[in-house]
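Entry:
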Amino acid sequence: MEKIKGHIGRLLVESLTKDQIVHLLDVLFSTIDMNQYREMFEKVDLDMAETIGKIVEMRNSETKPCARIASDQRIIELWNSLWERWNSLIEEVGDEDGKYAAQEEDWEPAYFDGSMLADDLDPIAADMFSLIDDVYDLVDDPDLFSEALDEIDSSISSYPEEMGVEGSDGCTLGMNATRCILKWLWLSSKNETNPGKAFLDKVSEIEDSYSMVDLNGNESVDFFVKLPDEVGREIYLCFKSDNRRSGLDSIYSSWHKINHLYEERFDPARYLETCRKHLGANWRYGRPLIDEAISRGDFQEAESLLIETFSSYLRPANDKKWYPETSLLIDECRYFRGYEEDINTLLEIWSTVSERLGNTKRSVASQLQSVIFRTPDDWDAVIGEYKRVRNSEVKETVDPLFVQWQNEMARRSIPATMDRPAPSVTWIHWLIEAELDTAARGAWFMGKLNAWLAFLKENVTVFIEQWPLLARLTKDMPSSSTIDQKYPTFFKIVLPQDFGEPLLSKVRRSGLQKMDADSSLSTAMDAWKNNLRYIMPDPENARSSDYTSHAQWMKSLYELSHEEYHSMLTQWQVKYKRRRNLWRDMKNQSLPI
């Protein structure tokens, strides 16, 4: 038999599957002491020998490895494959017909989509980041990522002028790509005499050199803050000595945020000075000042700072100061509400500060505001807090806030897609009042509800004005599922559609169930049957000859009352007889025409 020629290893790789090779090596490692071949391995490939030695040691110790076990050549192989993927994406940049030349409509000009490029690069960068510690010395190219950024910047700039790249934001890299670049620059700086200054200069150079590509600001701040203390202190001293550095005085600049966090760590007095200087522009600078005033026992100053902080948060057009007892906070910041946890904590602090200053009304108002701001839709929590704090001394303070909260609950209960009735006392207000004492006020609520429904049933003008409130009630009834079964189109088209199961919907339904409100459902449906025709959308206002919605409303009317439907149909047949698409869409709804 002829002897097999060539490398046995290569033949095995070409002849067996990966799993088969794994099983083969498992058998060999379990039956042979690999240490006896160490010298032979070293002669063939020292990198391979060291890696096998680590594997054998790890197996014998039966512990998880604390570091990556891979040969240098394997790491470089992985690293190069990632760069191939990275470069394949960059090759698309600059091509006006390429992947990153986006276009909304055929007639609109194309534009560069930098966010798509950033999203595509970031998963690759995540894998790169996991290799950087092992690969940096092997690659030995400190300028690697600077050159990559230069290529991105020049590629973006090469798009045709009509794509408007010159006036665009270019590309802001994602979190992982930013981490990779900063880590690479740090590794190239950390062994220098002044590593902090060297790193800062390299990052600044990137910021100054490229107009079409930026680092992720939040990730940059996070990276700088996590540097060793001695490095951070060195960078902070650079900030202090270089007043020309751009961005230090702009609260939106990453450099400002980095410098401010270093101030907090290394220069507390200056940190507070910066907070005071910029409080009017950024309300989040208020908390450190408030805490410092409280630590000194100066509660009067703490309250003054709380007033400034909330003014900064709310930014009233007339510079009017806000106080917890004057108006509901969730009303004041309806369109820009955010940072709920931080604001809630400030309200709790204000309650404590007011108590120390002897202002019981403001203290109680702050506490109630805190509960409402934290969980406005949790009726049990808000009602419970209101009942807890309400007494003769603070009644005049908390009652108006409680009414404002009721108004907010009524407003939120009607979808913005519906015409919300003007603020007034509604069945939602009555339900909340009844929740204050269910046993005593249940009959009172049902009396109010039934009188309102009877009025809606007979009064077209009031129905037209208040039908969204009736729609909300009908949908919230405990047995509303029976309406869905009997009048499916009406249930879907006329009643509000709630996505998911929001807390506010749950508490309304729970309250109605406690009041046994289902007994009023038949009266509510009579109001719909009598008056639905008066709120039907007018085909006169249809756009692009699309009458789908009108046909669906007509089907809703047909489900409720054949008589009312035919009365409406007679009018439409005269007024809209030439609108063929209307009759087509009604026919598609299987309506008799």
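Residues 114-139 form the longest helix (26 residues).
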